[in-house]
Amino acid sequence: MNTNLGRHWDEDSLATLQAQDNKVGYSGWEFRYKTLSQGCATHIVAAFDPTISGYNGLYLEDCTIFKTLQSWASDPEAAKKLWTFSEKLVGENSHANVRNGVLNWSNHCKWHLENLTMRCGLLTFGYTLAIAGYCPFCVSDETLSPSQRMQQWMTKSTLLNHIDKHLETGAKKECPYPPCRVALMNVADSRAHFQDAHCIEEPRSNCVSRKRKSEDHEEYVQDTNGETLKYVSKKAKNEDEKVQGRIVGPTTVIR
Ligand SMILES: [Zn+2]
Ligand SMILES: [Zn+2]
Ligand SMILES: [Zn+2]
Questions:
Q1: Model confidence at 216, in pLDDT bands (50, 70, 90)?
Q2: Gap from CA of 50 to ligand 3 centroid (Å)
Q3: Which of 86, 200, 230, 254 is the Cys-Cys partner for 194 at CB 3.0 to 4.6 Å?
Q4: Helices (H), 116-168
Q5: 100 or 78: which carries more pLDDT confidence?
Q6: Residue 138 CA: which ligand is closest?
């Protein structure tokens, strides 16, 4: 498929690939793009066709099981190499290790502490939490345990209220977040900085539930499997649902 994924792909890349193929004795194939629907079709068959459920692990091409694989395409050693190499490229294997039980939660948090990105704020998609938020003050506090430092905040308002408590003791001269440390002037400056540089946002302001939820509504869970999504505060979720119900219709309240 000719998608944006190939935006760095040029004539030379194709030539290099073909030369590599010739080298391993695999030649004569014709390069052609598929359309979007053609490109999706095999994936859809793989995901939903009940007749292939007995063939787990086999390779599909053009919506059918492809049996005459080249030896290098089914070589477990090569597969392992490719997997490890891909992990290196994206700099990530920690989540898989937690899932597989190789890493425990505390070590996983340590890994995150060593690989901090600038984002601290949580990321939601619609009403669904995609990535939990972190407190830039707690993350920087080396007197806390790794899992305390990486405490996960599930709603924007509880994270903001928590950060406000840190700010009540007066703004720091610099941003506490380890990979940042820019100079800050006052509390208002700090708040603006947290929003701009670390994506710690106010809850959406175009619906009724503007009151920030209190910290008690957060169900903080010391997770042992590294799965965060199912721990969204039940109470917060109910409130969101209530709000969703109320903003439908002509009597939308905007504060
Ligand atoms: Zn993680
Ligand atoms: Zn904190
Ligand atoms: Zn900062």
A1: low
A2: 51
A3: 200
A4: 136-140, 146-149, 156-168
A5: 78
A6: 2
